[in-house]
Amino acid sequence: MITRRTLAGLVAGAALTPQLAAAQAWTPRRTLDAATAMPEAGRRPWADQVPQLRVGLLGGENEADRMGRFGPYRDLLEATFGVPTRLFAASDYAGVQQAFSAKQIEVAALGASAYAGAWLDTNGGVEPLLTAEEADGSISYVAVMITRADSGITNLEQMRGKSLAWADPNSTSGYLIPRFALRRQGIAVDGTGYFSRTGFGGGHEQAVVAVVQRQYDAAVTWASGQGDVNAGYTRGNLRAMVDKGMLNMSDMRIIWTSEPIVNGPHTARVDLPAAFKEDWKRFHLALPKAHADIYRQVERGAGTGYREVRHADYELIVEIRRDEAAARRRRS
């Protein structure tokens, strides 16, 4: 059962037994590998099956900023693979999951929970290719609960009777894991048993803005958990908001941090050509070295690059999603 596991199991590979991991004997490729190099530019044979590359973008940020960040990335994909590339900017996480189900996109960088949801929705019709590494080379990040520094709230106990904004119902750090972790601490996350009210901010950026504007007392969002907290850490939503001038961390206070969560994967449809998936991996493994500015823009900060992943790295998240769905059915 989920309740007998710790969140440390969310770190990639920790949910596997040592015997299973040894039996599989798999060494993922990484950006830091010496042989990493960008694929040569030119149209590929797989373009006959993928005449247009449609890339899903998760919601949680205003659309102008999102499209601006990903513009050079789209241009580079087109120049490298010789196929028209379109960005599918969904208004929320569910939009990207639904696009996978309808085969309206080929690939998307998802959070772990959104990947689990897409995998369940498509009956295993999507697969993870690679994920981002943090500054220390790990592939985990954290969920944080943030309040205004002038709120007088300095710890989770003082959130009793206060309002909390979730980011998105399909967000790992902005909903799934905070709910899971808080319930394990004996905190009622539904109704008004602990919090005066809870609601959705409409995305990570919007949820934090709602706290800044005093619409909620606190919000949960994602951060690398590494580096200078005053800069919003090395990577994540807080860092992006600081870099855009939307947030001053001296005005905010972090009152709760989750255990490590496995970073979400670049996800592709299973039915796509294997050669396409290999090119996607090679492009991204080399991106931080070859085009550092584009890499930093799409990752909202920087780490050591990317690493290959497999479905096994996300099995525990899938299990938690199933558990959450069963709990919703019981409540209804």
What does this structure look like?
The structure is a single chain. The chain has 332 residues and is of the alpha/beta class. The chain folds into two domains: 2-137 and 263-331, D-Maltodextrin-Binding Protein, domain 2, CATH 3.40.190; 140-261, 3-Layer(aba) Sandwich (D-Maltodextrin-Binding Protein, domain 2). Helix content is 35%, strand content 18%. It is built from ten helices and twelve strands. It has helices at residues 18-24, 63-81, 93-101, 112-121, 172-184, 204-212, 237-243, 274-290, 292-299, 315-331; strands spanning 53-57, 85-89, 107-109, 126-133, 140-148, 163-166, 197-200, 218-223, 252-257, 261-262, 265-269, 305-308. The chain has a six-stranded mixed β-sheet, sandwiched between helices. Strands 5, 6, 7, 8, 9 and 10 form a six-stranded mixed β-sheet that branches. The relative contact order is 0.21.
Question: Topology, pairings included?
Answer:
Blueprint: H1 18-24, E1 53-57, H2 63-81, E2 85-89, H3 93-101, E3 107-109, H4 112-121, E4 126-133, E5 140-148, E6 163-166, H5 172-184, E7 197-200, H6 204-212, E8 218-223, H7 237-243, E9 252-257, E10 261-262, E11 265-269, H8 274-290, H9 292-299, E12 305-308, H10 315-331
Parallel strand pairs: 1-2, 1-3, 6-7, 6-8
Antiparallel strand pairs: 3-11, 4-11, 4-12, 5-8, 5-9, 5-10
| Helix content class | 25-40%
Estimate nothing, just give the exact number of structural domains.
2
Sheet bearing the most strands, described? 6 strands, mixed
CATH architecture classification of the largest domain:
3-Layer(aba) Sandwich
CATH class of the largest domain: Alpha Beta
